[in-house]
Specification:
With 269 residues, this protein is α/β, with parallel strands linked by helices. 36% of the residues lie in helices and 19% in strands. Strands 6-12-11-10-7 form a five-stranded mixed sheet.
């Protein structure tokens, strides 16, 4: 899926409330964080050449603010904005636009949390498991998926109906699982209960534990990891689950939650 990360050029224009770039340093920092996220997933922020002529302070165009050091603001902020604009990508007439702004702007993301939410909103409306699989990695960068994750996703009945619920569960795991593990690693039942309070239910399955090994490849290392905890979707007795494990030092030095399976029970009733 093509995503066009479009910078709202007008968000740089000075206003009576924002007439000094030194006061917008935090906004520049947040824009830089969005840029870092885009870079990590192999995307760029897009903008039009007209941005150089926008006045960021009274009588000070953006080009002069960056290159002639006119107006106020730190050199660090100037270099960061220059980097974002000069490394812009090529816009496409296809795909879906996500607007990005410097500071608050209507229908635009001004920080990473809002930006990621925009991506996940798009993900939750995807109709097919194949397209979902291709896009989901860019929405959950603190997750790592089993090698055969797509093969089971293809068996999910009425996938489009469940895409949003799958997305909501993956979002909580991506954003909170590592922190929960670090806090409750000596009492993971408590961590399961916390996840259950946020979604339908998180539980373990000791009866079928030996059927819950899933293959992962990280760099040149191939390993099987047992993903016994699972999120229940639709209903507590449905056959749609997300099996995961909190972390493993062999995968990205333990920095990512591991998603072993999205789909049916891996064992026969």
């Amino acid at each position: 899926m093509q995503i066009n990360n479009k910078l709202v050029e007008e968000s740089f224009r000075f206003t009576p409330e924002k007439n000094n770039m030194s006061f917008r340093s935090e906004e520049v920092e947040r824009l830089g964080e969005i840029n870092n996220y885009c870079r990590e997933i192999g995307e760029k922020i897009l903008c039009k050449d007209e941005i150089w002529d926008i006045e960021v302070e009274s009588g000070v165009k953006l080009a002069d603010w960056i290159y002639s050091r006119r107006g106020s603001g730190s050199q660090t902020d100037r270099k960061l904005v220059e980097e974002i604009i000069n490394k812009q990508g090529i816009s496409s007439s296809h795909g879906i636009d996500i607007n990005i702004s410097l500071g608050k702007w209507e229908n635009a993301a001004d920080n990473t949390d809002v930006y990621v939410d925009c991506r996940r909103e798009i993900l939750g409306h995807i109709d097919t498991p194949e397209e979902y699989f291709e896009f989901m990695h860019s929405c959950f960068i603190d997750s790592y998926f089993a090698d055969n994750i797509l093969s089971e996703m293809k068996h999910i009945k009425d996938f489009a109906v469940h895409a949003k619920e799958i997305t909501d569960n993956l979002a909580v795991l991506n954003d909170e699982a590592i922190e929960l593990y670090c806090e409750y690693q000596n009492n993971l039942a408590e961590a399961n209960d916390i996840l259950s309070s946020k979604l339908l239910e998180c539980s373990v399955d000791p009866k079928h534990r030996e059927a819950l090994w899933f293959p992962f490849t990280y760099e040149d290392v191939h390993t099987d990891i047992k993903c016994e905890p699972h999120m229940k979707l639709i209903r507590r007795d449905s056959d749609l689950r997300i099996y995961f494990y909190w972390k493993d030092e062999r995968i990205a030095d333990g920095s990512k939650v591991l998603i072993g399976r999205i789909g049916r029970h891996p064992w026969k009733k």
